[in-house]
TrEMBL record:
Keywords: Hydrolase
Organism: Oidiodendron maius (strain Zn)
MF GO annotations: hydrolase activity
Keyword Hydrolase: yes
Name of the protein in its database record: Glycoside hydrolase family 39 protein
InterPro entries from the UniProt entry: GH
Database matches in Gene3D superfamilies: Glycosidases
Amino acid sequence: MIDLGDMQGAPQHYASGFLYGIPDTPNQIPSHFYTDISFNYGRAGGAQLPAKGYLGGVSEYTPRFQSMLSNYNTCRQFGAQFIILLHDLWGADGSQNSSAPMPGDGGSFALWDQFLDQLVNDLRANSMLADIKVDIWNEADGGGFWLRPMDQFMETYAHTYYRLRQILPEAEIFGPTFTGQPDPNNTWWTTWLNLIQTNGSIPDQYVWHLIRQPGGSGGDDITYSSGVFQQLLHQYGLPSRTINIDEYGSPEEQVPASSAWFIARFERNNIHGLRSIWTGGPALHDFMTNLVNKTATNQYFPTGEWQVYKYYGSVMTGNRVATTPSSDGFFDVYATASDRVRILGSAHTETGSYSISVSKMADFGYNTQGTVNVQSLEFPFTGVGGEVDGPIDHGIQAIAFSNNQLIIPVTLSTSTSAYGWEIFQ
């Protein structure tokens, strides 16, 4: 499961991004909550504010732009990249009704182009051009943000792609940003792939979301969906480009266990991921997607999930180590090697007994046989927003190994907890 003979360079913290969760007031959340998790990707567009966005006029758009600007500046403060959500600036944040104007209505993009011109002028006026990424539309296939036929979305995507290339060449364009994972039987995906093949509107980063489907089945495994996507790219003769999953995790998956599982998957596949958020209104603009909470006197404190990302972002240093998941697909780990070999893992939302095989011990300076110490940690979940001040230390066990391989027995007794193991002499 872990191969100490295969070091893969410095940690990249691919999973340390999130959607919204940043207050519009600068420096409201103490900076260490960002730096300790190696925060590196944000995404926002002023959704759920009283101002309704550009579909209500410039005066309704401006507060949303100011909110986005504040979030962008916070991201830049911590060296994080930022994704602009056009649909939220426009006002299609799920609160709009079916009569609200949408790009391409009646075959016209005049109002939409005015909006894009306004946005680009504001971006330039506020020096917002560094590391800018733009989602053309969010989850058009999901039904809540796009209240028009699929064909109108395809026209909007192609029109917006070329318009942005003309007026904002500095930006990276993201797409299609579907809620459904790539699937050769999904007409949204096949129609979009055919579109970009025929008219050349290939995004700079391919984007979709990993959200577990009702009943807990499918939709959340980047290893599977990226494999399907590569097959589709080959089928349509399209180039491979960076993949970005700019929303991951359904509500029941936002626990320490699933966070560790997603981390393992994103790191192995070298794919960026941003945590989803499932709140609305003012709470959307706070709490770092429920990684932190605050007291009645506005003092912020960490949750169990934040402790997982802190361990991942600050403690797991050195080199990433090659890993493989368990044969049943549930248990997975992320590992690094520095002064110690550190392992973070879980069985997603399952419990059970597993073993961690650590091979080629001698490649990291151990002998081919002997005894090492293994310290076990647990990252508990105490409810959404529940305070957790650090991992539970379950103590140190001396474990003998031979034939250049260490076997660590693992019992996962709590489906919401993530676990850590540290190997040292």
